[in-house]
Amino acid sequence: MSSSVLTETSIPGVTPHARGKxxxxxxxxxxxxxxxxxRISAFDCVLPNGIPDKGRVLTQMSIFWFDFLKDIVPTHFxxxxxxxxxxPFRSHRDQLEGRSMMVRRAxxxxxxxxxxxxxxxxxxxxxxxxxxxxxxxxPAGLQxxxxxxxxxxxxxxxxxxxxxxxxxxxxxxxITGEMAHVLRDLTLRIYSTAxxxxxxxxxxxxxxxFEFGMVDGTLVLxxxxxxxxxxRFWPRDxxxxxxxxxxxxxxxxxxxxxxxxxxxxxxAPPLPPEVIERTAGKYREAYRALTGRNL
Length: 295
Fold this sequence. Notes:
Layout: E1 18-19, E2 23-28, E3 31-36, E4 41-42, E5 45-46, H1 54-68, E6 77-79, H2 93-96, E7 100-104, E8 107-108, E9 113-118, H3 122-130, E10 132-133, E11 136-137, E12 147-153, H4 169-176, H5 180-200, E13 203-215, E14 218-222, E15 231-235, H6 251-258, H7 273-291
Antiparallel strand pairs: 1-2, 2-3, 3-7, 4-5, 6-7, 8-13, 9-12, 9-13, 10-11, 13-14, 13-15
Helix pairs in contact: 1-7
């Protein structure tokens, strides 16, 4: 298992098409190459330390789910074999192998498709103040992390900076037009399928977000799928509603940062070795638990 850290890619002569908090994206004709680095962000700040193997986990887990869901929805995934990438990318397999994938360019819908099966995160805050989530009225008396009577669709705006913002379905319809109901139904179907599989592996899928786009008139699932960065996975054997749950994500990093005298503005403080390794272990553990494989 590799434990090297890559926080920034560099392909000589090629400028990234986009660079997000975690991913570097390169354009090559009708395709894009997504590279998941080991960068980690918290409170909307990219931290100075990378997390070993994080990018590999995000990429390999998305590839696993793309294949798992192929009978439900087409995807933009083409290949993760860096030897099949066009030049000059093929000559830089040392940066790309295991943490990248070539995908078809898609015309993306400008909204996040979020499914929730439990009351947590921004949904819990919304419920506490309004008794609903995204305008969906819910039973009284739910606790933090309670399971919902049935999964709900709670879309959000895509934020280039800052947090995504929950929006009512009517706003989602205005953004996505005639595809709104298709996207909602597909999101809930994928969530139900994935959560049933995760439960068999001893994990609860509390909530997750998907991104969809169109390729040559076909609706496709795109970007990352059902990873610890886009989803809230909890160990089933320690689940206990009434508070926050243990999770397979970067919550350990957030909890550590909350103990510091830091105003949550850049530059972010460095992470100590034990926090880095504990977080890396969470990502690896999530991959092993869900796929039954090692990196």
